[in-house]
């Protein structure tokens, strides 16, 4: 099952709205088929593994990181494919909460007389499929917030200069994370100040994540990488229902997808509504790169699932721009806390990963 989960990760960032599933077929202690969800979500992992195994699938044990689908879509159900191949046993990490499946795939396999074992490596699978599971259960994708800062937690000098606080190894790591997510998101302030491209570069990757900008009034520059390359990589703009119709039309003419979301009591786009809109559009995993005000809003809304921090050995002082905007915290006990996952060196910098308690009440 560990191998199935590892294979599934190869599809991350490329197969939404489907989950990134892995499948391994084992016959008498030998792997005869391997597969993972392909770009665009088809074919599914089980279909790829069965095609590779051929007649050797008969009597084999199938290890699948998520319950085989039980509904007809662009392809027939994977549970039926496993039955037709006459596998001898199916081992599943997790049930699929999609109402079109949710135990149905398991039931059909068992009805065919094939034994099914559930819950193998379930905790690992919960993390591997976190975004898909959240979208099915609570209607929003998993959210990773990235912060790159100086040793004293600043993201820019007093004049706004920020390129580059961290070194090339850290920036390369960021591009790898972009490639493994369905979308890269920033707030309107970052789009106006930094003119980011938000694309994956330097890794030989052919696909690009959806580029998302949250700006209530669409006060975004009509030049720069986002506007000029909207046809090369998808651009989705989250805006308020009161955004000027002319601006919406201008961005749509450039190829952008404009999505109206609710505005919160503070006059800014509601962070949870933003994620729910992205979830409704099929995204499972979103990678947010700021800026400080938007990042703080996401933290205050308690919808950040993972924190990725890059820390450089440089200090910018109190006059520098803080990594996050105001959170309104007056008591340490009320400060949001995340659980440590790992840390490692990247060239001249360090990266540290923190995770929201997976057992906490979902939002």
Gist of the model:
The chain is 27% helix and 23% strand. It is α/β, with parallel strands linked by helices and 363 residues long.
What features would you highlight for this structure?
363 residues; alpha/beta; 2 domains; nine-stranded mixed β-sheet; 16 strands
Number of domains: 2
Low-confidence stretches: none
Mean pLDDT: 92
CATH architecture of the largest domain: 3-Layer(aba) Sandwich
CATH class of the largest domain: Alpha Beta
Which term fits the overall shape? Answer: globular
Rounded Rg = 22 Å
Q: Write out the strand line-up for the largest beta sheet, numbering strands in chain order.
A: 11-10-9-8-12-6-13-16-15
- Strand percentage: 15-25%
Write down how many β-strands occur, each being a DSSP E stretch of 2 or more residues.
16
Portion in helices: 25-40%
Distance between the termini: 29 Å
For this structure, the CATH topology of the largest domain is Dihydrofolate Reductase, subunit A
- Total number of helices: 12
Sheet of most strands: 9 strands, mixed
Indicate the topology:
Layout: H1 2-9, E1 22-27, E2 30-36, H2 45-53, E3 61-64, H3 78-84, E4 89-92, H4 104-111, E5 116-118, H5 122-128, H6 130-138, E6 142-149, E7 154-156, H7 168-179, E8 183-187, H8 188-194, E9 210-214, H9 225-228, E10 235-240, H10 245-253, E11 257-261, H11 271-280, E12 285-288, H12 292-300, E13 306-312, E14 321-322, E15 339-346, E16 349-355
Parallel strand pairs: 3-4, 4-5, 6-12, 6-13, 8-9, 8-12, 9-10, 10-11
Antiparallel strand pairs: 1-2, 1-3, 7-14, 13-16, 15-16
Helix pairs in contact: 3-4
């Amino acid at each position: 099952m560990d191998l199935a989960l590892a294979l599934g990760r190869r599809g991350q960032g490329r197969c939404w709205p489907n989950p990134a599933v892995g499948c391994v077929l084992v016959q008498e202690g030998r792997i005869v088929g391997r597969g993972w969800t392909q770009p665009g979500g088809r074919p599914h992992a089980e279909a790829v593994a069965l095609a590779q195994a051929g007649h050797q699938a008969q009597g084999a044990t199938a290890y699948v990181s998520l319950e085989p689908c039980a509904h007809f879509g662009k392809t027939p159900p994977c549970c039926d494919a496993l039955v037709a191949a006459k596998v001898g046993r199916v081992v599943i990490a997790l049930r699929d909460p999609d109402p079109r499946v949710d135990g149905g795939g398991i039931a059909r396999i068992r009805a065919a007389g094939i034994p099914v074992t559930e819950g193998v490596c379930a905790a690992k699978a919960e993390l591997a499929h976190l975004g898909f599971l959240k979208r099915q259960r609570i209607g929003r994708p998993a959210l990773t917030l990235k912060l790159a800062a100086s040793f004293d937690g600043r993201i820019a000098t007093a004049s706004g200069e920020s390129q580059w606080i961290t070194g090339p190894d850290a920036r390369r790591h960021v591009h790898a994370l972009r490639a493994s997510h369905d979308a890269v998101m920033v707030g309107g302030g970052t789009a106006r100040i930094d003119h980011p491209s938000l694309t994956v570069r330097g890794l030989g990757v052919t696909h690009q994540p959806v580029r998302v900008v949250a700006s209530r009034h669409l006060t975004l520059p009509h030049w720069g990488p986002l506007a000029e390359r909207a046809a090369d990589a998808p651009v989705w703009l989250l805006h308020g229902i009161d955004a000027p119709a002319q601006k919406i039309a201008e961005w749509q003419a450039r190829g952008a997808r404009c999505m109206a979301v609710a505005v919160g009591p503070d006059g800014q786009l509601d962070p949870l509504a933003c994620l729910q809109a992205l979830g409704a559009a099929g995204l499972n995993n979103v990678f947010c790169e700021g800026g400080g005000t938007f990042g703080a809003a996401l933290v205050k809304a308690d919808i950040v699932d993972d924190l990725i921090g890059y820390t450089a050995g440089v200090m910018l002082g109190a006059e520098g721009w803080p990594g996050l905007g105001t959170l309104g915290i007056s008591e340490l006990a009320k400060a949001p806390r995340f659980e440590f996952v790992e840390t490692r060196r990247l060239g001249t910098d360090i990266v540290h990963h923190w995770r929201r308690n997976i057992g906490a009440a979902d939002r």
